[in-house]
Amino acid sequence: MLTTLKRIVQEVNQIPVLDDALSCLAKRLIEALKVDSCSIYLADYDQQHFLLSATQGLASEAVGAVSIGFSEGLIGLIGQREEPLNISDAPSHPRFKHYPEVQEDRYHAFLGAPIIHQRKVLGVLTLQQQKKRRFSEDEEAFLVTLAMQLAVEISNAQARGSITSLTENVPKDWQKSLRGVPGSSGLASGLGYIQNIMVSIHNHVHGRCEDPEHEVYIYRLAVKQTQQDMTELSAKMKGQLPDDVSAIFQLYHHLLDANSLGREVEVKISEGWDAPTSLKMVVENYIRQFQAMHDPYMRERAVDVEDMGNRVLANILGLNTSESAQREPPNKAILIAEEVTAAMLAEFPSEKLQGIVSIRGSSNSHAAIMARAMGIPAVMGVSNVPMNLLSGKEILLDGYTGDVIVSPDVTIRQEFEQLVVEEQLLSDKIHAQDDLPAVTKDDCRLSLLVNAGLSIEAENNIHPASDGVGLFRTEIPFMMRQRFPTEQEQADLYRQLLEAEPSKSFTMRTLDVGGDKPLPYFPISEENPFLGWRGIRLTLDHPEILLVQIRAMLRASFGLQNLKIMLPMVTSVSEVSEAKRLIRQAFYELEEEALAQGQTLLMPKIGVMLEVPAVIYQLPQLSKIVDFFSVGSNDLTQYLLAVDRNNPRVSGLYDSYHPAVLSALSTIAKHAGLLQVPITVCGELAGEPGGVVLLLAMGYRNLSMNSHNLLRVKWVVRNITQSESEQLLAKVLTLNNPQDVREEVNIYLESSGLGGLVRAGI
Ligand code: PEP
Ligand code: MG
Description:
There is one protein chain. By secondary structure, the chain is α/β, with parallel strands linked by helices. The protein has an 8-stranded mixed sheet. It has an 8-stranded parallel barrel with strand order 15-16-17-18-19-20-21-22, surrounded by 5 helices. Strands 3-2-1-6-5-4 form a 6-stranded antiparallel sheet. Bound molecules: phosphoenolpyruvate (PEP) and magnesium ion. Residues 568, 611, 632, 634-635 line the site of magnesium ion (MG). Residues 369, 471, 473, 512, 611, 632-635, 682-683 line the site of phosphoenolpyruvate.
């Protein structure tokens, strides 16, 4: 069964047009299961009905013509119940409804399975047979498995399809609304700009052609261009390449040869497909063949075949990648990327960067945190959109809601401009309170610190209204290089930072790579990176890296008194003891050097991040060996809720307002108070208006946030009271789900005159 299933899925996946793929599926299922009829109905939520979209065994004229209401007949029942239905005699079922056009009178046995993707019913897959019989359990399990696999394909095809018709001959007044998730708040407008156009045959949308001769012509031209590119590239690299890499160039030439791949592409064109689609079909087929090979070396070559396919496609589309890499970004650019990286943001001219649209990623990924740190509005996870479609188009981006409007019409643009004006007014109001202290209306004072290190700018200017740096993420300088930075390089950077405001405390976190923060020169491949080798686990295994970093921090602090060192991802007390041993070692090594220079070297305060749930139960033990705690609410949420904060499939479940997270935060604050250990919160929650209210109520008095949120948070603090926030907390701790908590918190913010921020409450 498994082989049959795989074979069918593989064959169907190869067909780019959804309708063709579905009718092939129906045909193959009839053959494989020896049944009389197979049909697929797709849901249309606008019309509230299922449309017969493919069939083998029912009247073919009914395809595209017969629709069944969401609450009608057996199909409607399957959709409503979201479970399979297996009956030996369909006509005698009370929900059976007769549709004469489909001509199913001769069938009795009926098996149907819902096609569901991310909780949404996309359609129904049915089998029918003349004989009265119940389908076997095996048949039922087979259909359910197939329906699950089909769901992903249908969802992708539908998302692509809604855009396909627009990619061809896009009319001048075309406008498209896309939905992602809010990554960084704010409104932005500008022209879509793709930094490095990465053409991918996998993302290419299919198309038919009218003029096959012309398609063959442009295909051949593109191949010629690619051959020329490859010749130039291999000449440029001559002598520098090992033999096996040179062999790859040979493979490219061989594949591009008119007699191998070329012939097959031209056959597809003659069947009516356009050149990019024909290339996609042939190349994807080759990729599958390479991937299925036994020899690991040959299997690896699938990547080369794909790369070659992408190069030819780029040339067909007139997007020569080397040229595009050198294009100048427009003055007001919305950066479009498959996935935003630190390097990409660092390279991009910041004066031109208005907003970010990331095809992948979620609001909790580091890319989003980075965008927030830079104060750049961002929308994440706008998946299923061919990036090329956004390039060069006017884009309006709403980082509060996750909306992206491409090529807006005049009315939308005017509405958007009005929102920008309102936002500016709010921002002016907030800025007017710049110099005032962060004190609640009932006189409770908070210390507001900044998180720094995620962007080059933020590194060098600590917010003047802040009380210091509560978290300096040291990993970015490591990520920006081709090798580990030397002790001197690190010391120079750290010195500059510590010296900038010597009277304000500066908490440096030791290297926290791993998870979603890989180092390009130290690749770690793990099945489960967030539960793997990251933070202190990695640096304790490599004391040579940790010692160099600590020495650099200590050296940078000669003559100063503001350095604090913080350890990330701590799970056990022994990790802290071990790290402290290394810190002491570095301290003694450097003490003499400081003395020789006539400088003082103070032992810095050492703290741990509370982000792994295990440490919540070890606070008394930890309190004996550290000077401070800092709650990393981002990871604490991720680990408490067992939700990978970067995985869009489950990112909806990631929520720091989850009652369990709030309860954990509350417990931590209480214990830290009893143990008299200073405590800060440095996760994103500390920079959100609602988070501030709840943290204040729990007893937190030190909050560290990205500097763009600092004045906003101060404004919140100055407009609330500790006593009211405590009442609110008592209430929300009794609630069952994050949405209810959010609602209560928003009501409180509104009642405190902070309604303007509720909209911006990410
Ligand atoms: C956290 O986990 O809350 C935190 C501040 O660390 P990072 O986001 O860098 O993992
Ligand atoms: Mg963390």
